[in-house]
Amino acid sequence: MSYPGYPPQSGGYPPQGGGYPPQPGAYPPQAGGYPPQAGGYPPGPGGYPQQPGGYPPPAGGYPPAAGGYPPQAGGYPAQGGGFPPQAGGYPQPGAGGYPQPGAGGYPQPGGYPGGPTPGQPMPNYPGAPATNPSMPAYGGGVPSNPQAPAMSVRISLHNRSSLKQFPGCTDETPGVTVSSKGTDENAIIELLGNRSNRQRVPMVAAYKTTYGKDLIRDLKSELTGNFENLVLAMMMSPSHFDASELREAIKGAGTDEACLIEILSSRSNAEIQEINRIYKAEYGKKLEDAIISDTSGHFRRLLVSLSQGNRDERETVDISLAKQDAQKLYAAGENKVGTDESQFNAILCARSKPHLRAVFHEYQQMCGKEIEKSICREMSGHLEDGMVAVVKCIKNTPAYFAERLHKAMKGAGTKDRTLIRIMVSRSEVDMLDIRQEYLKAYGKSLYTDISGDTSGDYKKLLVKLCGGSD
Which domains does the chain have, with CATH numbers? Predict the structure, then answer.
């Protein structure tokens, strides 16, 4: 089809085949007009040939600047002076990611253990919004930058996990079958011991799709003892596993108070809220109601407070407020006839962890002793154990878990449920830090103690979760 006035008359502007590249000397074209001069395609120095799949320059505009469209492989282009996103990248600054240097940064030497330098804000972590008490805090939330890959709720913030995601692995069928003709335990150990939780959990659905059988039922029928318990724990999502452990700690004749405190004092708000949701769905009862029916007194109040998943998670620390809280704790305990347990409960369960680390420091400066010692003087029984555990977990979480592991293995007999729970739940969070704290506190590597305290396939899989000797 033709139109009046087309094609253009001689001396006009016929479009060249394949578009027109800019001439040397940039855009708009210099005197001499179109078509391009001899040797014009590809353009000479200074030109900008179009890349396959790229956008043509908008009419009247300039060619796209380096770093613009088309997007570079792997996500956003690096900003000037910045770093490119790493594999599995972190959310971009301004969307809950790490602060840029000079914008709060990490605490400098001389600050509180695990806390900020006085007067300096703490960094925001993946999945966190700006420090605003009305917004949900970090700890497994979906990163606010929709382009960043979703992160597991239990992924270490500083990549201190002993168990890494297997490269190139997708949600594929497990490379092992379980049948009455025999099970290849070594294949199970190699498979589970080299896959992250995010890669393991989908195996259950993939197995049923491929073989028409239930993987968990097959594993239960073919495996036994602690090896079975460890394998089944590794096939559950972190929050499902926590919910099942809380259920086991509460039901029956006795209560495992240490397990309740361990889980509720070390998980983030988002994780605790997910545990509550799963507990109600799986067991038909609210976790809070289960705790109330199985505990009593101030220890019950401590657990109920922790189970709300409503701790302040702002990362900034107000030193003047920390001093006030330290004075309140002193007035409620050491400086009082009797003890105001409610004051301890209110501060230890509601304040942010960075703030509490500052409070503990101020408390020691003020009365010359660590707050754990004051708690032991003022309280007793499960309440004392619970309060001390909360303080230790907040002060130094890896050291707290190192102590829990040591207690699980020392002496006659092994507390295998505790050993399994910590090794599975912390392997993708801070196991390398736990190993360092274990070696520092007990003079032996965690790997060595696990190897000496367990045996068989159970030991083989546990040391895979440990990740090596120190």
Answer: 238-306 (1.10.220.10), 319-381 (1.10.220.10), 398-466 (1.10.220.10)
